[in-house]
Design brief:
single chain, alpha/beta, eight-stranded parallel sheet, globular, binds pyridoxal-5'-phosphate
Length: 241
């Protein structure tokens, strides 16, 4: 613990206020399209923030947290094992780190290649765990080269089949990141359609992970079941290298 009690209270109040605000916006977006608020899970993106913040979030009722880098993610999950949180891994994942991530992540959102599926499966199976996997779908124009990762929409069904057939992994759904330019609403509508097509063949694939601090309302209106919100709750991060 680095923060003493007075700082702790200030930070706690700040996080509580931001959480309330985001939850109200999620509820309003859901209501505007006739969805129930319980259909949307808020996943708080805690990357770069200290474990003391995650403890405060847990006290404030947060059950789902997301990290995007190994080993930072694993170190936090180990230190906070007593909280019983659900740990989401949302970052682009190097193949050589995948087996280790599968030893602590409960849900991996960024699965976009067969090589990654195999390594995740090996890690999960050897740890005696079952890891839920989302196929990350590229929502960028083809050949955009943004480096955000993600499988091409036409490859989603095949990748999903490989996940479903891999011991230690469970196919849970799809994830997407809206392109930097253009309409987030359009991108999320395409993701929802991909999710519906997949669900017709794989009924367990019910999760749609979409939306960040600046566009989670669009994501909820388009059908997201999980939104990944960081800075709107925790404040500004130093830019990631
Ligand atoms: C960092 C990150 C988020 C959260 O972004 P904010 O703008 O801070 O809400 C969501 N999804 C992914 C994949 C991220 O890397």
């Amino acid at each position: 613990m680095t923060a003493g009690p007075p700082d702790d209270h200030v930070r706690r109040d700040e996080l509580a206020e931001h959480l309330d605000d985001v939850r109200h916006q999620i509820d309003a977006a859901a209501a505007s399209v006739g969805r129930r608020p319980e259909e949307v899970t808020l996943v708080v993106v805690t990357k770069t923030f200290p474990v003391s913040d995650i403890r405060l979030l847990s006290e404030l009722g947060v059950r789902d947290v997301a990290e995007n880098r190994h080993p930072e993610a694993g170190e936090k999950a180990a230190e906070l094992a007593d909280l019983g949180l659900t740990w989401h891994f949302i970052g682009q994942l190097q193949t050589n780190k995948a087996a280790r991530v599968a030893q602590y992540a409960d849900v991996v959102h960024s699965v976009d290649s067969e090589r990654l599926v195999r390594r995740l499966g090996t890690g999960a199976h050897s740890a005696g765990r079952v890891v839920s996997c989302l196929v990350q779908v590229s929502l960028d124009p083809p050949g955009d080269g943004s480096g955000r990762g993600g499988a091409q929409p036409g490859d989603v069904t095949h990748l999903a089949d490989v996940i479903a057939a891999t011991e230690g992994l469970r196919l849970a759904g799809v994830m997407g990141v809206a392109p930097a330019g253009g309409s987030a609403a359009d991108a999320f509508a395409r993701l929802s359609q991909t999710a519906a097509d997949l669900r017709a063949q794989q009924p367990s694939a019910t999760m749609i992970s979409a939306g960040m601090s600046h566009d989670f309302g669009d994501a909820v209106r388009a059908g997201a079941t999980h939104v990944r919100v960081g800075s709107a709750i925790l404040g500004h991060r130093p830019p990631l290298g």
